[in-house]
Hints:
Layout: E1 2-3, E2 12-15, E3 18-28, E4 36-43, E5 49-55, E6 59-62, E7 65-76, E8 79-84, E9 90-94, E10 109-115, E11 121-125, E12 129-137, E13 150-155, E14 160-164, E15 172-176, E16 181-186
Antiparallel strand pairs: 1-6, 2-3, 2-6, 3-4, 4-5, 7-8, 7-10, 8-9, 10-11, 12-13, 12-15, 13-14, 15-16
Amino acid sequence: MATTSDIRNGLCIRYNNDIYKVIEFLHVKPGKGPAFVRTKLKSVTNGKVIDNTFPAGRKLDDVRVETQKFQFLYADGDAYNFMNTVDYNQISLQKSVLDAPELLKEGEVVTIIINSEDDMPLSVDMPLSVILEVTHTEPGVKGNTATNATKPATVETGATVNVPLFINEGDKIKIETAKGNYQERIKE
């Protein structure tokens, strides 16, 4: 049993007959009244995100999990296939379990959280950032680096990302996976 003081990002808890993963949390101590914890929880079964407030000191039913490294092999419709990097076993997960499936390229190594009780995969943690090649965008103009203006660009996985005006087709860019934002251009 955990309490609200144990809440952290990535913690998996049993709540309302489902397993939820904590995405965001904030401990709040108002000037008047008892303290509480405001959370954003994502269901690992259907991908729904809910907001919930727990009073301070409340007991939570945490789920024992283990993490393993898996390599993304290929997507087959809504099924995404991964291979364990240690024992080479393969598993198939639904698209709804993934946080940012549009940024996942073949060969990418991700961390999969697995329920220790029944060996069921709960969620997939992407790397903090990925490096992808721009496959389509409007031509860049030399000298357009001073403003914060952006344009849409399609990357090799098919995702569309807003990038600065100086980015051209064929450039490799670093993308933050949590929000899908452009971070920087990678020079080789």
